[in-house]
Design goal:
The protein is mainly β. The protein has one domain (3-82). 0% of the residues lie in helices and 48% in strands. It has no helices and 8 strands. It has strands at 3-8, 11-12, 16-17, 23-24, 35-41, 52-59, 67-74, 77-82.
Length: 85
């Protein structure tokens, strides 16, 4: 994995590597701007034959149902999702 950038409501979320492919972070979610954007780049995004990449976002919010979303793309993930809270 090259790099991962996660933003919620326009602010960067500091991520901590838990295992080779697992990252975690904590952020406050502003209900007026519940947009999550994720950018994940492979080690060499210009390389041909870059495999399909997947990233699973799990948001746990006190008193709410856990939200899960899967991002996927060939090569580079650069996508967003609006949280349902």
């Amino acid at each position: 994995m090259g790099s991962i950038e996660l933003e919620i409501g326009g602010g960067a979320v500091e991520l901590t590597r838990q295992e080779q492919w697992d990252f975690s972070g904590t952020a406050l979610i502003d209900p007026s701007d519940p947009i999550v954007s994720l950018k994940a780049l492979p080690n060499d995004p210009k390389r041909t034959g870059v495999p399909r990449m997947f990233a699973k976002l799990v948001v746990e919010t006190e008193g709410k149902k856990t939200f899960t979303h899967v991002f996927d793309a060939t090569g580079v993930i650069d996508d967003f999702v609006e949280l349902p809270f």
